[in-house]
Design goal:
single chain, alpha+beta, 7-stranded mixed beta sheet, 140 residues, Aminopeptidase
């Protein structure tokens, strides 16, 4: 079930994010992982958040701002079960998502978005925090 995220869910989102990033972002330096983990809740108020619940437990979430998918994370125990695709389809249909930015080094995510109809339109050498993690900008 997809539902809107409330502030009381933020702690669960942090756990989902950590599980997901540890299994998909092996290129992150440990100090950068800690930086993003600490700052993650600061991003939440700037995006529209929805989550996927399985047996009354949040297992994935997305965040959208200005028709851009800013975040999509699935707990590692629930990856490769179609939840990411369901959340992405929801974001496109209900939130009018037209674009997404993805770490170039996260090949699983790049492949996923390309398989869902996105195309690479540009590359930034640094991420939104100015760190040296190249970002691919994709669009439908």
């Amino acid at each position: 079930m997809i539902r809107r995220i409330e502030e009381k869910d933020y702690q669960d989102l942090k756990g989902i994010w950590e599980s997901s990033v540890k299994s998909t972002h092996d290129f992150l330096k440990q100090e950068d992982f800690e930086f993003y983990k600490e700052n993650l809740p600061n991003y939440f108020p700037h995006v529209t958040l929805f989550g996927f619940e399985f047996q009354n437990q949040l297992v994935g979430f997305l965040g959208v701002a200005e028709k851009n998918l800013e975040m999509l994370f699935i707990h590692n125990d629930f990856r490769r079960k179609g939840i990411g695709k369901l959340l992405l389809e929801f974001s496109i249909k209900e939130l009018e998502v037209k674009s997404v930015d993805v770490n170039k080094q996260n090949q699983q995510a790049v492949d996923f978005y390309l398989s869902q109809g996105f195309a690479i339109v540009s590359l930034s050498e640094k991420d939104g925090e100015g760190k040296s993690y190249p970002i691919l900008h994709l669009s439908l």
